[in-house]
Design goal:
2,3-Dihydroxybiphenyl 1,2-Dioxygenase, domain 1; 9 strands; nine-stranded mixed β-sheet
Length: 158
């Protein structure tokens, strides 16, 4: 690419927001990460909001979620699927050991378009807007790379 092309091409990817790991046993996983990183979780909760199941490609799913702060400002999200319903979408995040990376973006439609044009497939029901809470108005979507790795694209609230 020439310098002129680089100047005119805008990259909608801003930063890595978090890395998520699907786990089988939340207590066991938290014990490991506590011992390994010498950190305590900053939150742990069960989430059954309908938008979450749509986001992860498993409508109706109930998730147990724990967050830990990692060095350099990155966060680790541990997710245990309590009720992963059958999904009309390709396999993805619901099995233990699955990993996703969440990338902060300034323009979700553009980032999603770029991912799909590059060969990703949609991993969510579609873009999802967070309806309430501290992230109200944030928009997220999951896509999967050609190897099936989940990539969560996150546009912050306006």
């Amino acid at each position: 690419m020439t310098a002129a092309t680089n100047e005119t091409r805008r990259n909608p990817l801003d930063h890595v927001h978090h890395v998520g790991i699907s786990v089988e046993d939340m207590d066991r996983s938290l014990a490991f990460w506590r011992r390994f990183l010498d950190v305590e979780p900053i939150s742990r909760r069960v989430a059954d909001a309908p938008f979450l199941g749509d986001l992860v490609g498993h409508p109706g799913a109930v998730l147990e979620i724990a967050w830990l702060d990692l060095p350099a400002g990155l966060s680790l999200e541990l997710v245990r699927f309590e009720r992963p319903n059958d999904s009309p979408l390709p396999p993805g995040s619901a099995h233990p050991g699955a990993v996703h990376v969440c990338i902060g973006v300034s323009d979700l439609p553009d980032a999603m378009r770029r991912a799909l044009e590059a060969g990703a497939i949609l991993g969510s029901v579609g873009p999802v807007e967070i309806p309430s809470g501290p992230n109200r108005g944030a928009r997220h979507v999951y896509v999967r790379d050609p190897d099936g790795v989940s990539i969560e694209l996150r546009q912050p609230p306006p």
